[in-house]
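LOG
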Amino acid sequence: MTRKPDGQEYRIDDNGFLISPGDWDEGFARTYARSAGIKGGLTDEHWTVIRFIRDTFEERGRVPLVYVTCMNFKMRLKDLKRLFPAGYHRGACRLAGVAYWTAQSQHWVEGKPPVAAERPPDGGHPLQGYRTDTLGFLLDPADWDRGFAEATAAALEMPGGLTADHWRIIDYLRAAHARDGVVPTLYATCEDNGLELSDLQRLFPDGYHRGAVRLAGLRFWRAMPQPSARKQR
């Protein structure tokens, strides 16, 4: 059981994220830095990013998009990868004690990702007919079809709809997930498709996970409806 200096424990979910963002302290980031691929300890550069994410969450109730964080510090994708090799969300955000699903306070229940969405049977929502959670992610990736991606693009009000460039990334994500059983990191997606962060922002302005991954019918967190809380040993 991992403990804070005062003897209390860090409660984490099956994905290694803090169950309650309010339990975060700097000791949490130090404790889990190595599991995020940071072997030499946290430097001032790490802390600057971690504190920016943390401060943004506490001030605005939202996890900043990777684009926002990188632009704020004039960082390129290679700079972010050097600092957080596990990824922006699985590295930087996790060490900051937050996740993008915790940023939707109206859908957040402590320790549990969003549950199934409820829609009026005769509603005109673009995702009517698809089983999604309250953030619009498919409950079962096997239910995905191209109509889901089109409907999600409409729900996100993506100007111009989905182009061949969008479909190239969506098809890549689905193929990689089918092959490896995990969602590729932001780094892998950009590197394998010859994209800069600015290219990804242009295609998916709502973010990598909240945009591209969601359109592909995938999700970062594990089994639905929710992971069970566990204690780190």
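LOG (cont.) second protein
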Amino acid sequence: MADRVFACTSCGLCDVACGYDQSTAIQDMKAALLESGVNAPESYMRISERTKETGNPYAEDKDAAHAYLETIPETKLDSADFTLFLGCTEIYREQDQVDSVLQILRAAKVSFNVISQNICCGSPTFRVGDDAQARVQAGLVTSLFADMSTSSVLASCSGCYRMFVHDYPSLIPEAEFPPVLHTVQLIDRLLREKKLKPRSLEAVVTYHDPCHLGRHSGIYDEPRRIIQAIPGLKLVEMEWAHKFSKCCGAGGGFRSGREEDAISIAARRVQEAESVGATILLTACPFCLRNLTDGAERISSSIKIQTVESLLAEQL
């Protein structure tokens, strides 16, 4: 039973299919199993163990992360309208995504600063049922923002965004947390205010809704408006889109616990994008980006996998 429970990717598609909040019930089952001594498979538990030991689920060197972040000039600013929080996957695996976000914010002359250290938001440990470690991470992040007197948080990772907005209130209800925007929400506004002027690009694209950003947070229109603001792009929808979007296969610890299966799920999502004639598959989550890219490589697909931010940055 535990193997089946921990295999849940936390995507929430079952909530839409059946009309009640099954994914929360399954999440609670993960925590209950851990508390009763029925641990997740070892490959899942590595996420929690690494976070406890090193502060991030990849077991990467925090000093290396700090050195990288210190190269970003905005880490030197004491105050700004937004504080950009960069997630572990962006810092350790997808630094090109960070570059794209920075390029867009600078082009629009947004007042922002960047945290100069990596503190995991706690989402990976929370998704495998380790509420205790997730609460520790939530406390560290909340204290950091309190010390910085942050007025608004900007998150470019969908997992971090969901954690801040939806999970922190239950994990640490006594704490006050600043207002949070995902980068696609801010970029959508910047485009409508004519603060960004993208060049034309003739291409057929489709968009994969990240589970954390779409079903769990209701953010569907903003990334699509960004895509449609780029002249020449033709947006086509996959059969499974918006609230019915299929998971990329990476969530809920599934990528760490069952990597081959996670990549196979991503490969099927890539095939769905190909079936509607898209040459570019876009998303708004660095973890989806990583898994979909591996899925495309698995089937030798020629489709290009990008985030909405990276495509826009290329056209500025």
